[in-house]
Design goal:
2 domains; four-stranded parallel β-sheet; 8 helices; 4 strands; elongated
């Protein structure tokens, strides 16, 4: 039973996290901006100008994971540290800033992102300034919930978790639908329930 679970365990180590941060920057930030200025004469110069008019923020409070990720995000993508700010430093009167980008590691339900976004991100959006939310991992349910707030211009995730990633879900990739797997699934689910009772 333990071997079966460990064989399907999804783990993001430090190197993989850094690769995902590179993908996030390249696919959701760099490529779209370059595409926007593609037909201009000096693409590189215009790209740098656009990037300098961008500010990056961590989703959540300073001690939470979204903010912690910013150091590695800046490091692996070689971004100027002046483009990173704390939420309290957002100046909506600064007309030089064209976009704000919130970064977070994971969202399963979307609840925490929505609660946090209802503060400063909402104010930014109401000023008709571009504000985006990019995640390393998220479920489709979370992405849809965040999009439905109509605060962010863009909500994307590097790695999207579908229903098959729910360990005990009906379409779980860990317990395929046959008699032996159903028995194993029931045993593991009951064990997890017993352990979590003592935790809460």
């Amino acid at each position: 039973m333990a071997h079966k679970l460990l064989n399907h365990f999804v783990y993001f180590n430090s190197q993989m996290t850094k690769e995902m941060l590179i993908s996030l920057y390249r696919d959701f930030i760099e490529y779209p901006i370059r595409q926007k200025v593609l037909n201009e004469v000096d693409v590189e110069k215009l790209f740098k100008e656009e990037l300098n008019q961008t500010r990056f923020l961590g989703m959540g409070n300073p001690a939470e994971s979204g903010t912690h990720l910013l150091y590695y995000f800046r490091q692996v993508n070689n971004i100027n540290k002046d483009l990173f700010i704390d939420q309290s430093k957002v100046d909506l009167s600064d007309t030089q800033i064209k976009r704000y980008i919130y970064i977070d590691d994971m969202s399963i339900t979307g609840k925490q992102v929505c609660e946090y976004a209802n503060t400063k991100a909402k104010e930014i959006s109401e000023k008709r300034i571009e504000v985006n939310c990019y995640l390393l991992c998220a479920t489709k349910k979370a992405i849809d919930k965040i999009k439905n707030m109509n605060i962010f211009n863009s909500v994307e995730s590097v790695f999207e978790l579908d229903e098959s990633f729910k360990c005990f879900g009906d379409s779980s990739r860990y317990f395929l639908d046959d008699a032996s797997n159903r028995e194993c699934k029931e045993m593991v689910e009951n064990t997890v329930k017993d352990y979590t009772k003592t935790m809460y």
